[in-house]
Amino acid sequence: MDLRGFFRFCAEQGLEGVDILDTEGYPWLWSESDSLEKCVRWANEDGLMIAAYACGNNFAKAEAEARAEQVALVIRAIERAARCGAPLLRIFGGHHAQAGGEASIETASGLEMIIHGVAQCLPHAERAKVILALENHGRLPGHSYEQAAVLDHFRSPWLKALYDPANYIGNNMGEDEDPLRAFDCLRREIIHTHLKDVGPPVRDLKRRREPYVAGQGITPLRQIIAAMVKSGYKGFCALEYEASQTTPEREGVPASLDFLKKCREAALLQIRPSEATAIR
Predict the structure, then answer these.
(1) Which domains does the chain possess?
(2) pLDDT tens digits, one per residue of 192-227
(3) Sequence-separated (6 or more) residues with CB below 8 Å from residue 76
(4) End-to-end alpha carbon distance in the chain
(5) Is 7 within 8 Å of 56 (Cβ atoms)?
(6) How far apart are CA 38 and CA 46, in angstroms?
């Protein structure tokens, strides 16, 4: 499937929007003929919104020059997000030494680097009118209180949280966190959500978790969606499908979307109980 086919496929699934991965951070997804301008045109043709643009940065670098390069990467991604009309840019903080990062990177020092990196990017985000959405990824930040600490440091409308419930129990975590507790901690700051499922390893027993089709793993997706609906969450929920090694995308993506949509329908009964008569 090429990028044009991806847009068409998303429209066929009845989706409202798509996330786009950065041309610089994820070049293997882009052919020489693809462009941000074409993505905007395809989205319009297929009735889709560009819900988010996603950068793959890592501010947790031991060398100052390497950190400066990551800041520059995010600034360029802010500009590209603005070009394609994305309201927000997904950013990472960084990678802990035990989550794929450099050997010297620990929690306290890493979070300081992240705060320093975000501080340099925020003015550019504000000028471009693009919100930075900080994801719990790479263990820096990993826990919800660490995400909240970074957000509280700035208290800026241009820095919000990207909530990925499966990441709190994923491979990059040293200690699991209840995804529902994480939602409760961050719910006022969440601007965008990734939904995926993980569970016990089957293919690679050295891993803590493996990806699953949504609804087949251990991520409490039904409870999470119910909590989001009840709280009045208005942002996008983007399916992040990673289980292609066990279930091909053309099978697993529709199955995952069907599960998530049914979770949302059930959750809506909390706030519209009169509609329960429809299922009698």
Answers:
(1) 3-193 (3.20.20.150)
(2) 999 999 999 988 888 889 999 999 999 999 999 999
(3) 24
(4) 42
(5) no
(6) 12
Structure tokens at 56: 């793959």
CB contact at 8 A, 137 and 167: yes
Chain center to CA of 55: 10
β partners of residue 132: 89, 159
Helices (H), the chain: 3-12, 36-46, 64-83, 107-128, 144-154, 179-186, 221-231, 249-268
Residue 121 · residue 71 · CB < 8 Å: yes
Cis peptide before 201 (omega within 30 of 0): no
The b-or-e profile of 171-204 (16+ CB within 10 A means b, else e) is: bbbeeebebeebbebbbebbbbbbbbbbbeeeee
Neighbours of 129 (CB within 10 A): 11
**pLDDT tens sequence across 118-172:** 999 999 999 999 999 999 999 999 999 999 999 999 999 999 999 999 999 998 8
Task: Report d(CA 53, CA 25) in Å as an integer.
Answer: 11
Q: What is the pTM of this model?
A: 0.95
